[in-house]
Amino acid sequence: MGARKRTPERRLEPVSDDIELSCDSAELCVCRDIVRRAHAGMLDKGADAGSAIEAAIRVFRYHHPETGRTASRDLVEQWVLGHHLH
Question: What Å distances lie between residue 13 and 9, 21, 34, 67, 83, CA to CA?
Answer without folding.
Answer: 13, 16, 23, 9, 27
